[in-house]
């Protein structure tokens, strides 16, 4: 298998509403799936509250550890939106009003009551930052070096990711294929372990479920090398069928 | 307001399936909501993959930083279930088969094909650990000091949390109440900021939405002091109504 550099990213989800249980986060899975397509692996995610110190620590750690660092949340107009200030503090730069962001917001709010101080807050960026266009609701995301500051509302983040598609250097996308089987994973643990060992470079995940009164599991094989994934799945399928199990390609 | 010690917890969600985007995590919100009822605040969550080093680092950091540390995932029977080994390494203790867990699993698998080596893996614990009963599927959770090792499958975790209810020392539960208003949050940002300042000890969150072609927002007031929450909400309501806004108690 051709060796390629593996590109990695970290994600910091910012918001008391996630840590209080009020809001179900959707950005980890959304950004993870998008990164896969860019050939970048989400290596770690952290959820922190609306506190400067917590944001500085988490973003500082993930930005240093991985090729890219994303944040979601805390870039709106209200007092609990402190992501830009925290990241400027981390980077040791002042917060400035970005002129292009001001222009975007002035156009957006022209028919919606006009600009005010709170709305102008959404044009604030760490000095030296570029904007990430927001096709949904005016206020842009922000890019500073390897750091991408995105909205908390998932469909706004989706729009920002869309404008970033194909812009970030990555490696080969990870290919992921599944088979499903009505079997207790504890009955096939040895087979999974030996198969993963035999096909170097694949990772096999085992995800049990209980449905219609029966236990089953999906086995997910992942690698950037699609031919290897297919060979590994074919081996697993053959072994399971030899043991008298029915296998569903694509998973159950 | 009576001063009480604030109890905190960290959570490490373990699993490649979360970081690949394949599986939507439900444990952060589930455990956060449960902790609130125990009077414990979820202060931080991290999501890491099935790698020993990543688990050791995250659990080590959160266990040291907060009163309690929870983990979910990686305690099943297959090769990718390495949480127990990683935590034993972190604690510097050997992994042993817990006799009570062996007994539980033997009973559970008696009518399901009997024990095997993979199933016995689920009885492995860091030496000195206690068990957390699993009412759903046999294999127990594990408690070692301030560390709670739980299942990845949310409804199994729910059963484990249920058996822990009332067992952990906490403070006064945080009371959280909402009002909703068809207003752009950027129009009321000043009011929110001054209200949070006026009612010391409350945190106000502002959560905008876009529905039926109109913008609105829910404002969530949180504090362990219910009387303070009510007073703060009454103030916000009065101010919004004075400005000609209709307010929905409980949120929109």
UniProtKB/TrEMBL annotation, chains A, B:
Secretion signal, residue range per the UniProt entry: none
Pfam families xref list: FLAD1_M, MoCF_biosynth
Annotated InterPro entries: CinA, FLAD1_M, MoaB/Mog-like_dom_sf, MoaB/Mog_dom
Domain MoaB/Mog intervals: 10-172
Classification via Gene3D superfamilies: MoaB/Mog-like domain
SMART domains (UniProt xref): MoCF_biosynth
Protein name: Competence/damage-inducible protein A
Lineage per the UniProt record: Bacteria, Pseudomonadati, Pseudomonadota, Alphaproteobacteria, Sphingomonadales
């Amino acid at each position: 298998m051709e060796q390629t550099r593996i590109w990695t990213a970290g994600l910091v989800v910012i918001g008391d509403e996630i840590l209080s249980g009020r809001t179900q986060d959707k950005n980890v899975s959304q950004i993870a799936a998008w990164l896969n397509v860019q050939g970048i692996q989400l290596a770690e995610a952290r959820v922190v509250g609306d506190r400067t110190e917590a944001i500085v620590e988490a973003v500082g750690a993930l930005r240093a550890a991985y090729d890219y660092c994303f944040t979601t949340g805390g870039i709106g107009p209200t007092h609990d939106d402190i992501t830009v200030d925290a990241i400027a503090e981390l980077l040791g730069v002042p917060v400035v009003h970005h002129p292009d962001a001001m222009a975007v917001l002035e156009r957006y709010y022209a028919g919606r009551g006009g600009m005010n101080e709170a709305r102008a807050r959404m044009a604030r960026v760490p000095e030296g930052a570029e904007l990430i266009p927001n096709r949904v609701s005016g206020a842009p995301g922000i890019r500073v070096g390897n750091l991408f500051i995105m909205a908390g509302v998932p469909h706004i983040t989706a729009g920002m990711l869309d404008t970033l598609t194909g812009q970030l250097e990555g490696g080969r996308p990870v290919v992921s294929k599944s088979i499903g089987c009505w079997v207790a994973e504890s009955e096939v643990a040895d087979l999974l372990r030996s198969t993963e060992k035999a096909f170097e470079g694949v990772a096999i995940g085992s995800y049990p479920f209980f449905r219609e009164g029966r236990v089953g599991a999906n086995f997910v094989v992942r690698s950037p090398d699609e031919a290897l994934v297919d060979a590994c799945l074919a081996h697993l399928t053959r072994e399971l069928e030899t043991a008298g199990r029915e296998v569903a390609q694509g998973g159950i």
